[in-house]
Amino acid sequence: MAYDTTQAAGAKLYISATPTGSATTEILGITVLDPVEIGMRTPIDITTLRDTAEQWDVSGMTKSATLRLEGFASPGDAGQALMKTARAAGTSYNFSYELNDGVTTPTKYQFAGFITKYAVDTQSGKDAVAMFRSELKITGAVTEVAST
After folding, report:
1. Which of 18, 40, 79, 83 could serve as a FRET partner for 91 with CA atoms 20 to 30 Å apart?
2. Is residue 6 part of a domain?
3. pTM for this entry
4. Which domain holds residue 69?
5. Each residue of 112-137: pLDDT tens digit?
6. Which long-range contacts (CB under 8 A, 24 or more apart) does 120-127 make?
């Protein structure tokens, strides 16, 4: 069976320059990016003490995800600088994650989120490169824009 798959290589993550702007500045150097979860719901147990045979659940609200990013630290990169600005401001910025799948326009996942962590690895040895680690908490809905 053949699958229509998309390689992670070539995927890009963009951040907005301002909290309300469009995500147009690419964050360079990313080597690890957790999956973007769309519509994950946590069931709510509504079983009562009188229910003896089965457990009852209802669908809960959509839970926002936390993305973990890692990559090569680059102080001169505008995208990494905006991540640090967003973390310091504590406000939500807009993001766009683009797959490497479209002939003309790639599939995009657009969302708002908070940078909750940005750290540079200071334990690099003489044969290592400085790495950054960051966490991004998605807030609100993730919108998928199909490729063309």
Report:
1. 40
2. no
3. 0.79
4. 12-37+58-145
5. 999 999 999 877 667 778 899 999 99
6. 120/73, 121/73
